[in-house]
Design goal:
CATH class of the largest domain in chain A: Mainly Alpha
Number of domains of chain A: 2
CATH architecture of the largest domain in chain B: Orthogonal Bundle
CATH topology of the largest domain in chain B: Cytochrome Bc1 Complex, Chain D, domain 2
Oligomer: heterodimer
CATH superfamily of the largest domain in chain A: Cytochrome c-like domain
Largest sheet of chain B: 2 strands, antiparallel
Radius of gyration of chain B: 36 Å
CATH superfamily of the largest domain in chain B: Cytochrome c-like domain
Low-confidence stretches of chain A: none
Number of helices of chain B: 12
Strand content of chain A: under 5%
Mean pLDDT of chain A: 92
Structural class of chain B: mainly alpha
Structural class of chain A: mainly alpha
Largest interface: A-B, 39 and 41 residues
Strand order of the largest sheet of chain B: 1-2
Shape of chain A: elongated
Order of helices and strands of chain B: EEHEEHHHHHHHHHHH
Number of domains of chain B: 3
Mean pLDDT of chain B: 88
Radius of gyration of chain A: 22 Å
Distance between the termini of chain A: 57 Å
Helix content of chain A: 40-55%
Chain lengths: 243, 297
């Protein structure tokens, strides 16, 4: 066998071909089965997709590079459960394209952020983090008060639907209207948002002002939805760990 | 000039190793053998992988996979680890389940043990809004003073923690300052008069017979009390002191009157355990008592 390797090393193209074959076998054995094995991504029954407003907020989250400093994955470690709550399940981000698990925590993990703080706090904190957390090194995002561009939301939902996210034709057609209505609890469309996306969806003037739909509305709506799309993670952990 | 010639393998007299057979103008290269230890290490890892295939989840079988004899699951291991963490501190944490705050606060050894843990909980969950030392800020109430909306005894604080204020919890405490200006409940000049009256109340110079006092009685007293001394039951702040949540300048008061205030305290029942909430309640109540329980940091 060493002799074979010895001879292969002398034929550079042969060596390249052999490396490719070895890597392909590794890929076929380690990666390919993840697409066929049922429980790789077990999609929870109660998992809801993001509403159009939350989706717009998710785009802003990506645009501002929040993922560079904040992960969205509670790792399966005892200490992480103690600090953040139930560890993240693959199924929780089944409808995320791309997923935003992240790999670096300059700031805290955000996977269980939804409902933890008030909307007011998020608004103040995003505009000027140090006004509420003096030791914070997070940049300020004062420009989030600009109006939200909802033009592309229908197309975005349609694209995600093609990737397997369960957006109905009705959801796609009403994306712009739903985005606006989710920030206006007193509007006629608010009930439609709840009907389409579920009663657990937060319908509020996220930035405190329902007369204008801003990027702040979208981002806060998204942040408040983190970890609330399904109860699966809580249910998975509950039998073993009830303190 | 001689070209490198091939297949002239000979043995180096100094080391005893063979050469590669190449000859560059008389320079030849040793063909040092691969170290045996590396080959053995490689062989050992292969041998271990065979064992691991049997013991650990390993081989894909179409839609399923081999579970391995040890039946290890990372999620279960983490949950068990968390369980062990909880059990390790159960001897003192479970004492907080009783909710008998007088007895708990009297147990100095217990408090010395629990309050640092509560301080950690406060830093992780509460400090974002109420500040690292509980002194709050504009819009986020100060917890390190004697003024409370719903009450500062541990029982009441624990209940506020559990259900929140204006939160999504079904039993939430509810408190809303209406938007007298935005919703057209009062004209502009009357709002200004009420603001002046509130300022006067705060400085103790209010005239009870003025027209603005009548406006206050008609619009504000049902929550804030006839004398502006607040209504603890409805979370309406005392207006006769110099403590303000949203600011006490004339402009701040005008903004509050025009736009209303609906501050939200999230509900913690689903995020923190009952024992953690009780622990925090004692800690927060201690903040207000200014170090009496030795918990101010």
């Amino acid at each position: 066998m060493l002799k074979l390797h010895y001879n292969l090393e002398k034929v550079s193209l042969g060596m390249v071909a052999a490396i490719i074959v070895a890597a392909l076998i590794g890929g076929a054995v380690e990666i390919a089965p993840l697409f066929t094995i049922d429980e790789t991504v077990a999609i929870p029954d109660d998992l809801r997709p993001h509403t159009p407003l939350e989706l717009a907020g998710r785009e802003i989250y990506m645009r501002e590079g929040c993922y560079a400093c904040h992960s969205q994955m509670v790792r399966a470690l005892a200490d992480e459960i103690d600090r953040y709550g139930p560890y993240s399940l693959a199924g929780e981000s089944a409808y995320d394209h791309p997923m935003l698990w992240g790999s670096k925590r300059t700031g805290p993990d955000l996977a269980r952020l939804g409902d933890k703080y008030s909307d007011d706090w998020h608004v103040v904190h995003l505009a000027d983090p140090r006004s509420v957390v003096p030791a914070s090194i997070m940049p300020a995002y004062p420009w989030l008060t600009t109006s939200l561009d909802t033009e592309n939301l229908s197309a975005q939902l349609a694209t995600l639907a093609r990737l397997g996210v369960p957006y109905s034709d009705e959801m796609i057609a009403n994306a712009m209207r739903d985005a606006l209505a989710q920030s206006r609890p007193d509007s006629d469309g608010a009930a439609d948002v709840a009907a389409r996306y579920g009663e657990s969806v937060a319908i509020r003037a996220f930035d405190g002002n329902s007369s204008r739909l801003t990027e702040m509305d979208a981002l806060v709506a998204y942040l408040q939805s983190l970890g609330t799309l399904t109860k699966a993670a809580h249910e998975t952990l509950a039998p073993e760990a009830t303190q | 000039m001689s070209r490198p010639t091939r297949h002239e393998v000979d043995t180096d007299p100094v080391t005893g190793y063979e050469t590669t057979g190449h000859n560059w103008n008389g320079i030849r290269e040793l063909n040092t053998p691969f170290p045996r230890i590396v080959i053995w290490a490689l062989a050992l890892t292969f041998a271990y992988s065979a064992v691991a295939w049997v013991l650990l989840p390993a081989w894909p079988l179409g839609r399923d996979y081999t579970r391995g004899l040890l039946g290890l699951d990372q999620g279960e291991i983490a949950a068990e680890g968390y369980q062990r963490l909880a059990e390790a501190r159960a001897d003192w944490v479970t004492l907080f389940a009783s909710g008998d705050f007088t007895a708990l606060a009297a147990d100095k050894t217990l408090m010395a043990r629990a309050m640092p843990a509560a301080a950690r909980l406060f830093a992780d969950n509460c400090a974002a809004c109420h500040g690292a030392t509980g002194t709050g800020g504009p819009g986020f109430p100060n917890l390190a003073d004697q003024d409370w909306l719903w009450g500062g005894d541990p029982e009441t604080v624990a209940e506020t923690l559990r259900v929140g204020i204006n939160s999504a919890h079904l039993e939430t405490r509810f408190s809303q300052m209406p938007a007298f200006g935005r919703d057209g409940m009062l004209p502009r000049n009357e709002i200004a008069a009420v603001a002046d009256h509130v300022l006067a109340l705060s400085s103790g110079k209010a005239d009870p017979n003025s027209p603005s006092a009548t406006l206050f009685a008609e619009n504000c007293s049902s929550c804030h009390g006839e004398a502006g001394t607040g209504g603890l039951g409805v979370g309406a702040p005392v207006l006769v002191d110099d403590q303000w949540i949203y600011g006490g300048s004339r402009d701040d008061i005008l903004t509050t009157l025009r736009q209303g205030r609906q501050g939200v305290m999230p509900a913690w029942e689903n995020r923190l355990s009952a024992t953690e909430i009780n622990m925090l309640a004692l800690y927060v109540a201690g903040l207000g008592q200014d170090g009496e329980t030795g918990v101010r940091q």
